[in-house]
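TL;DR need structure tokens for one chain.
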Amino acid sequence: MATRGFFGKKREPEQSDRIPPGQHLVDYFPVLSAGPTPQIGPERWKFTLKVGPRPVKTWTWSEFNSLPMTKMVRDIHCVTTWSKLDTVWEGVLIDDILADAFIEPPTKFVLAHSFDGYSTNVPAADLLTGKAMVALKYGGQPLERDHGGPARLLVPHLYFWKSAKWVNGLQFTERDEAGFWELRGYHIYGDPWKEQRYTDD
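>> reply
TL;DR here they are.
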């Protein structure tokens, strides 16, 4: 469960403009999850793109890994107040997933779904034009299970609960449907720079 109980190194002056209000810098990668870590191997992994309830396309692990790969270096910010700078990811941009399925975004809203039943909502605009990916590697290595491996959503400009671990699909929705933490009091959008941690922030 999410808590406020994290403390880290004092930020350096040259880093101040990269640390959102209320955050502190860490040099490790904390592990936080809503439940147990699912054991999903590549042989069982599938990723499905949906429009409403209708599946548009499903990829196996090998098919997904044949899509264009992109490297991304980004700062990440957790709602539990830690921030980590210059994290290195590699995966498939959401733009490239849509291109492979031959669709344009049909609605303004998306729900990300995970193997453990977790979900989180993200506006479609926040996933496109190189802003987000399904990450398969972190720091040059296959993504560890505790950090969402074999694949997780990465939306680095929003609080990190939006970067759903163990992701297995994206679903375009007609309205902005709240996901797991949003139904439990977290902000519907989650902008770290506006401190949108909880519903009324």
